[in-house]
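User: Predict the structure for this protein chain, please.
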Amino acid sequence: MTKLDKSFVEFILEQIQDAGYISHKYMFGGCAVYCDDKVVALICDNQLYIKPTMSGRKFIKNPREFPPYPSAKNYFLIEDEIENREWLCELVRITAEELKK
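Assistant: Here is the predicted structure, written as structure tokens:
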């Protein structure tokens, strides 16, 4: 069973609120984060995982990739920049934009 603090989810949602229309849904012990109705991230075990895209990879430059839960595909694990609101918003924006295509 994974742990998920709602205060951590609220912190992430506040950090990315300027990226677009942000919403979220709790499911399976984690949280899916949407930007403009596209799933752009998962929050599991109080860690932020961004859906991998080519644009996101280019923006991050050297992303750390891990599965957010067992048997999942790798996502970009965001740790060092989690408090950098502008950087995080830009990553979420470019991820959502690529997912629209």
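The chain has a mean pLDDT of 94.
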